[in-house]
Design goal:
The protein is about 65% helix and about 5% strand. The chain is built from 8 helices and 2 strands; from the N terminus they run αααββααααα. β1 and β2 form a beta hairpin. α5 packs antiparallel against α6.
């Protein structure tokens, strides 16, 4: 029986849990099963957030909510850092501007950039690529 104690990769645990341990189970059954697969810090987190006076709160029966909170709490903090690094290092491809923009927009969303940050990064990228800067000027592009 595989358990999650909070020290391993939580996304990998949920992949295994859903594909092997709880395969074919309904959402309420998964929520019930999950509790028996939590240990140590993961169980403590569940107990603090999904129970009161030694009784389960209604949210404890919402498998997707429990999963979301566990992923958020035990997920790797470096994931956001990696997303930000990828977004900052993204390059525009003058040959495929549309495809580049779609890819960059996806990276910016993953990095949780606000509109001002997106605009600043795109302005910097367009300024860096003289050909793109000329293209935007000739086409009359004024906003992102």
């Amino acid at each position: 029986m595989r358990t999650f104690d909070g020290s391993e990769d939580v996304a990998r645990f949920f992949f295994n849990f859903e594909q092997v341990l709880a395969k074919g189970k309904t959402t309420p059954e998964k929520a019930e099963m999950l509790l028996s697969h939590l240990d140590a810090a993961a169980f403590d987190y569940f107990y603090r957030n999904f129970s009161a006076k030694n009784a389960l709160l209604p949210a404890a029966k919402d498998y997707e909510e429990v999963k979301r909170q566990l992923l958020e709490h035990f997920g790797k903090p470096s994931d956001l850092q990696d997303d930000i690094r990828s977004a900052v290092e993204a390059k525009l491809d003058p040959g495929d501007l549309r495809g580049s923009m779609k890819q960059i927009e996806r990276l910016y969303q993953m990095a949780e950039f606000n509109d001002e940050a997106k605009f600043g990064m795109l302005r910097q990228a367009v300024t860096y690529h003289r050909q793109l800067s000329q293209f935007c000027t000739l086409r009359g592009v004024q906003t992102y």
